Amino acid sequence: MKKPFNRLQELMIKAMAEALFHDRTMVITPDQVVDNVQYQFSNIEGNKPSEIGMALYGLLLLLGGPVFLAATPAFRKRLIRRRLQNSRIDLFQDIARTKGVILAGYYGHWLPGDEEANFDNPIYADLEYELPAQRDRSAPGERSVRREPRRDLKAGVFVGHDSVPEETDVIVIGSGAGGAVAAAAVADEGHQALIIEAGGHYPSARITHQEARMTARLFKDGALQSTSDRDIIVFQGRVVGGSTVINNGICLRMKHAGLVHPDAEDVYETWARLGAPVSETDLALSYEAVEQALEVSEIEPIVGRNNGPHLIDGWKKYAAQSNDPMDHRAVTAWFRKNYGPKTADSECVYCGYCNTGCPYGRKKAMPESFLAHATSNARSKPARILDRAEATEILWDEGANGKRIAHAVEIRLSNGGKRTIRARKGVVVAAGALASSNLLYNSGILQSGSNISLNIACPVVALMPEGTKVNVWNEDQMATYVDRGDFLIESHFQPPMSMATLVPGWFEDHFERMRNYNRLVSAGVLFPADRLGYMDDGKLKLKIGEKELALLRRALATMTKVHFLNGAIEVYPALLRGQTLTCDMSHDEIDAFYETAIVEPDDVVLSSSHPHGGNGINVDPHKGVVDLNQRVHNTTNCYVADASVMPSCIRVNAQLTTMAMAHRALAGKRRFG
């Protein structure tokens, strides 16, 4: 293993670990934390390890350099509290976020070997946490935990780096929600398709419960990608299948009676007003086709038996005392997901590890569905996948009508080698909202990369009373939701390493909260940041303003009240300082707390898994990047089939709509003859 951090950086990691856990009994040593951090970042490709290394230097300077390293843990703790935890300085607040790296190094500890070798993992033992294979599933109705790798893609569908083809009919850039659906549509029409994917292939047989390794391998930047000012973490998959491999399989339409708030913004009307009159009827047909292919259905209560009902029951108590019609008309529901079919070898076994890939082969993500369909050897021209290869530029010819014709794509292989692949018929861009925007801009489409939206999430963790062991880690990570119209609330939980980075707090507060892991419940609020972002030098710039902060304060206050109404005794919102709210606070006091606690984005921990926009649809080529057919304006054969075509924020989870938009644009349309 090549260590990404030098000796000085190692000393800083160790010093921080000793301070953060001062006066508490660590079950692994600070040196083991250092080794774990080294291991995790050795698995991350790209520049992120170097960025964290520089952040460690900045942290060292901020805290006093050699004096900090030589000081006692107690002194370091006081210094960290003064300069990081309680700081209002943006730079100091940004540096304070490196705390999560240290916590991941502790709670992500993994003993050499497989899952069984970690039955006695000291971290898990301290938290009274059980890995899936340890869990008792003998009661009636429970589902046994076993691997079913039969739906994994076979090795034969992949193209080796030593046999990259010189040309193909259609090049599809990206293998995620949009790219896989597009590739299947292209293959169904008899075209030879080559799918270019920047990430590697991780079938269920290769996926483990080692959070540190899986997070590093399956996510862009090891799940540390952020906006340029580091205010918002942006989670995106970097793996064959894209984010569908590491998401929660949620399938929501933009508009759906009984499942979406009846008074929420009508996204179709907004799009039409902006110049993108997408037919609701046509998109509904594509929604239905995708849902049928994925066998989408509502999950069953057993998979989210504690955290799911906690949210719904708490919301009903909250709405019953509210005078706001939006609360009364809010939708509460169990999520619909692509976990089909409901058979013993396919149904979800609720292990709680959705966000590091399903090791049991139960999620019907893109590799198990549309990619398998596109690459099937039953067809005369099966699609093939070139993984660990990044598209860097689309090359054009000039057409007789002055429109550009995409004739080739330049790619960069994981070893740094470069290739040019000719496209006989066309190109489909579906690398995700951010990567597609960068690619098109670098290919001369200079209006690409503007009007990017996010659905922004913020977790709210709560502690249930002494003696109440809810063990919500033994269920589906996300089970139920509330759609209030202006924001959503989603039940949510994580395995130990990831949960440690979501649970706020410093020093003994954070330590004791994690020691109460079995008594924690959690939900996240989800609110829109509509068309606030743009790409600049390859990075997303997006700054939320007072409008979004006001909505966030109200959403967090609401979820805090919901927790308390359903029996929680303490609430830990994702604030950088790690404050605690208690059940004796009145609703007015809760509202007042958030008014003073959240002044700017740096005060709170924010993330997004749903970037969309950047190459928005518009009938006017001066106002959008693609036309109503999702073809790049002023080109003849280049289409965009991912979330980047969405003209504005859709507010709900974007997975299903991304697939439906790709289907709408390409399925049965014979775009390439």
Task: Describe the protein in words.
It is a single chain. The chain is an alpha+beta fold and 673 residues long. It is built from 21 helices and 20 strands. α2 crosses α7, α2 runs parallel beside α10 and α9 runs parallel beside α21. The longest helix has 20 residues. The protein is globular. The mean pLDDT is 96.
Structure at a glance:
With 673 residues, the chain is α+β, with helices and mostly antiparallel strands. The chain contains 21 helices and 20 strands.
Features:
673 residues, alpha+beta, nine-stranded antiparallel sheet, seven-stranded mixed sheet, 20 strands, 32% helix, 17% strand, globular
Kindly report how far apart the N and C termini lie.
Answer: 50 Å
SS class = alpha+beta
The shape is globular
What amount of the residues lies in strands?
15-25%
Residues in helices, as a percent range: 25-40%
What count of helical segments does DSSP give? Answer: 21
Tell me the radius of gyration. Answer: 24 Å
The averaged pLDDT comes out at 96
Give the oligomeric state of the chains in this entry, treating copies of one chain as homo and distinct chains as hetero.
single chain
Task: Count all strands and give the number.
Answer: 20
The biggest sheet, with number of strands, parallel, antiparallel or mixed sense and barrel status, is: 9 strands, antiparallel
